[in-house]
């Protein structure tokens, strides 16, 4: 029997590509060309290859138009991400297209980046690095680049899913007090003493650091806007490793300029890889290029998850383990 054809939109780790090629007729993107941003090109390549599955990633143009135009041979969209905001899930359901993602395996790595950004914002690590690299450091000084400690601070986790809870564990080690806002309260064994807030206002007023872990999409667009920022304590910190669309960039820039928000750390951007230009001129914002899941271990595990899902549907006629639509 011919191996099912899988259209792979991005360059993946070598080991993942090798396993994909051993199991499937994998059409790889070894040069990491940017064609997956163009829905018409995804459709064209899927039709040309007779693809049974597409292995895509965040940022690929899996909108309603693209999905509706996919050739009938395509049965599954396996995204190399936990986030699915780049895929129109309703359009996928309407077309009978199975969609899978890669949960769990990236929670710790993403929490690590949230933790990194929290420390960079609190301790002005980016500013310090730029100073040294610019050859502008004139020596230790008692008042140079003083930041704030995280010890004893109240960490507010917006979205208390797997990533948020991993961050809570790390922050307990820094003796932070954990607060969270979530659709609903989680079970006590998952809460481990974290304080649940049932209103945005109460949550925002209570915390010293906000770490955002909510999904993208219309429902969360510009969740952190000027009104909500105004409800935060003066001097609070903001970190976002979820999706860039959840922040009103102009409002955050204004708050960073006024000092109402002392500092921020961002790993994700609305319209990335474009970055809201005003961030680039600000010293008090740490900017990373969407590194959340970028560890060797995690990217291998994400690849393994995609393969499990593709194998289940296309080779074993089973329900894929990480089905989201
Ligand atoms: C991915 C992410 O690496 O999984 C997600 O949702 O945001 C990242 O960690 C990226 O989206 C690649 O698809």
TrEMBL record:
Chain ranges of the D-isomer specific 2-hydroxyacid dehydrogenase NAD-binding domain: 115-292
The GO cellular component terms are: cytosol
Which Pfam families does the record associate with it?
A: 2-Hacid_dh, 2-Hacid_dh_C
Question: Which of UniProt's keywords are assigned here?
Answer: NAD, Oxidoreductase
A GO molecular function for this record? NAD binding
Which residues belong to any copy of the D-isomer specific 2-hydroxyacid dehydrogenase catalytic domain? 36-316
Q: Which InterPro entries match?
A: D-isomer_2-hydroxyacid_DH (IPR050223), D-isomer_2_OHA_DH_cat_dom (IPR006139), D-isomer_DH_NAD-bd (IPR006140), NAD(P)-bd_dom_sf (IPR036291)
Report the family membership. Answer: Belongs to the D-isomer specific 2-hydroxyacid dehydrogenase family.
The name on file for this protein is D-glycerate dehydrogenase
Q: Which organism is it from?
A: Neoroseomonas soli
């Amino acid at each position: 029997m011919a191996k099912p054809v899988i259209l792979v939109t991005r360059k993946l780790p070598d080991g993942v590509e090798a396993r994909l090629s051993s199991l499937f007729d994998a059409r790889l993107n070894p040069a990491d060309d940017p064609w997956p941003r163009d829905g018409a090109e995804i459709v064209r390549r899927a039709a040309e290859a007779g693809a049974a599955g597409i292995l895509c990633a965040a940022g690929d143009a899996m909108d309603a138009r693209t999905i509706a135009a996919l050739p009938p041979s395509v049965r599954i969209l396996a995204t190399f991400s936990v986030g699915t905001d780049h895929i129109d899930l309703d359009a996928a359901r309407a077309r009978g297209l199975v969609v899978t993602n890669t949960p769990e395996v990236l929670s710790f790595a993403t929490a690590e980046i949230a933790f990194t950004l929290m420390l960079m914002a609190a301790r002005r690590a980016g500013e310090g690095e730029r100073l040294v690299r610019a050859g502008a450091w004139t020596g230790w000084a008692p008042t140079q680049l003083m930041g704030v400690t995280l010890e004893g601070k109240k960490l507010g986790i917006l979205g208390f899913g797997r990533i948020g809870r991993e961050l809570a564990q790390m922050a307990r080690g820094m003796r932070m007090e954990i607060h969270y806002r979530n659709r609903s309260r989680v079970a006590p064994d998952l809460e481990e003493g974290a304080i649940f807030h049932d209103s945005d206002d109460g949550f925002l007023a209570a915390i010293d650091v906000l770490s955002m872990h909510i999904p993208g999409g219309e429902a969360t667009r510009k969740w952190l806007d000027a009104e909500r920022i105004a409800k935060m304590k003066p001097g609070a910190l903001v970190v976002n490793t979820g999706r860039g669309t959840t922040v009103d960039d102009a409002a955050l820039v204004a708050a960073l300029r006024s000092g109402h928000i002392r500092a921020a750390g961002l790993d994700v951007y609305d319209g990335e890889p474009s970055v809201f230009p005003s961030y680039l001129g600000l010293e008090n914002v740490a900017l990373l290029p969407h590194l959340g899941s970028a560890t060797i271990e995690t990217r291998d595990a994400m690849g393994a998850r995609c393969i499990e899902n593709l194998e289940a549907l296309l080779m074993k006629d089973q329900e894929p383990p990480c089905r989201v639509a």
